[in-house]
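Summary of Year 1 activities. Much of the first year was spent building the evaluation harness for sequence design. The harness presents a backbone, in tokenized form, and records the residue chosen at every position. We chose the following record to illustrate the format because it has been used consistently in internal testing since the harness was completed.
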């Protein structure tokens, strides 16, 4: 197991699940811990995106989420991995790197900077392997982080063409005070098909006193747990970091030996539905585990699935999916019932309340949107304008309605766009002191008596509202 020194994660004599784009999400990290990984890394996340995030405690999933302005969950973690997860970022700016690290530091075990990623999305911004040709920036970033955060700081590099230059760079990195350095034993131009330079990793391990983590042995050197020990011995490293080997079968960390990949995929899928993992990430990870079986009947069913529910059906795990939905639904209801009545809060020009739209509380012919539209017409105002955003990973929606040069929204998220718009209308009506039409409410009818539209007229009016608002209802497909 990973050792702890004065509450700080120590990278000596540990195995690590490496960062891998689209793979290092919470379900995969938890599965790796189950099988024996000591430290797990998130996928590389770019500082420009993370610095805009806000930290939210998700009481339903029992996670901590870092959410972007467009409501995408960029990073999700939980108590189980808190002392063993390393947050890895892509950055080329010391100040921005520090801002991100300070945002995350209370929820992770360490902060890592990826200085070895050769992919264009990273290097074109001066990040990843592009930093290898700019050691002064490397030192500036690491110095800023080591001095500015309370958790260990590490970095990952690739080797340079010259062994002397590689050792020189690593010694400069050591002087910044980092807790460990991971070395991928390939040049930035090389890919997995090229041989790994174990001699370079070994030379680095001998040249510095901090732990060195060997990386890059998945394809040729590591197939099962004993291979991890041999890879560590061959490189003289303190630890071993795995990416693709762990992606193909996370039970590579299991000392008792590999498990059948079908069993591993089932365990992964249980975590994916428990933590509402993005279904496209779920598909990607499962297809990576299937490897040469990806064109099998099961593989094709997984590839065509659009939701986690459909993926579960491919594995015959519909009952598991339904049990989780019942659990999460009960948590949501308990949280809502225990919450005190919401008071309006105005921030950033938007007035919000914690309001959930329940259709059964309203007569069949009346909705809050209808009443708000009628009131706006009576007051000779522009009709309400709804702007809706989607949180793809949770497949939920939040709408803001603009009325009389004011904006209103519910702070709670709904499962459909229509419900989100109705909730926003409820907030607006309550703040303005207008009837919202609920059953049992005094004067539950529209603010002004009028004949209810017949079916044809009502459909026509809804179409006009939709076109005027520029807010067509699209199918609920995950993003």
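For this record, the design step produced the sequence shown next.
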């Amino acid at each position: 197991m990973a050792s702890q020194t004065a509450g700080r994660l120590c990278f000596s004599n540990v195995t690590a699940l490496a960062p891998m784009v689209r793979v290092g999400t919470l379900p995969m990290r938890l599965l790796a811990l189950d099988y024996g990984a000591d430290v797990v890394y998130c996928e590389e996340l770019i500082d420009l995106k993370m610095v805009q995030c806000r930290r939210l405690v998700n009481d339903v999933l029992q996670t901590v989420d870092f959410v972007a302005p467009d409501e995408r969950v960029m990073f999700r973690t939980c108590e189980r991995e808190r002392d063993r997860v390393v947050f890895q970022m892509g950055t080329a700016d010391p100040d921005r790197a520090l801002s991100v690290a300070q945002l995350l530091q209370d929820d992770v075990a360490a902060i890592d900077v990826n200085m070895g990623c050769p992919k264009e999305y990273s290097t074109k911004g001066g990040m990843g392997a592009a930093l290898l040709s700019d050691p002064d920036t490397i030192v500036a970033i690491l110095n800023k982080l080591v001095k500015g955060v309370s958790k260990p700081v590490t970095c990952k590099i690739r080797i340079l063409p010259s062994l002397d230059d590689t050792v020189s760079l690593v010694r400069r990195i050591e002087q910044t005070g980092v807790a460990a350095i991971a070395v991928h034993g390939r040049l930035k131009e090389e890919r997995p098909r090229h041989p790994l330079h174990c001699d370079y990793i070994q030379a680095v391990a001998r040249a510095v006193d901090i732990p060195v983590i060997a990386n890059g042995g998945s394809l040729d050197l590591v197939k099962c747990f004993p291979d991890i020990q041999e890879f560590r011995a061959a490189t003289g490293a303190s630890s071993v970091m795995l990416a693709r080997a762990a992606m193909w079968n996370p039970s590579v960390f299991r000392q008792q030996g590999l498990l059948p990949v079908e069993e591993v995929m089932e365990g992964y899928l249980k975590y994916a539905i428990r933590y509402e993992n993005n279904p496209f990430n779920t598909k990607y990870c499962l297809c990576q585990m299937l490897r040469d079986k990806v064109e099998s009947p099961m593989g094709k069913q997984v590839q065509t699935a659009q939701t986690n529910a459909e993926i579960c059906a491919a594995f015959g795990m519909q009952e598991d999916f339904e049990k989780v939905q019942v659990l999460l639904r009960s948590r949501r209801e308990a949280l809502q019932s225990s919450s005190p009545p919401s008071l309006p809060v105005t921030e950033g020009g938007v007035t919000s309340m914690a309001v959930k739209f329940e259709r059964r509380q309203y007569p069949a012919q009346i909705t809050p949107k209808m009443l708000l539209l009628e009131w706006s017409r009576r007051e000779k105002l522009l009709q309400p304008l709804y702007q809706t955003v989607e949180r793809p990973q949770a497949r939920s929606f939040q709408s803001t309605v603009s009325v009389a040069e004011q904006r209103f929204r519910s702070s709670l998220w709904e499962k459909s766009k229509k419900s989100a718009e109705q909730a926003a209308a409820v907030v607006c009506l309550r703040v303005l002191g207008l009837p919202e039409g609920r059953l049992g409410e005094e004067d539950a009818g529209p603010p002004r008596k009028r004949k209810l539209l017949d079916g044809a007229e009502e459909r026509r009016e809804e179409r006009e509202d939709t076109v005027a608002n520029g807010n067509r209802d699209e199918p609920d497909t995950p993003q």
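The chain has a mean pLDDT of 87. Quantitative recovery figures across the full test set are reported in Table 2.
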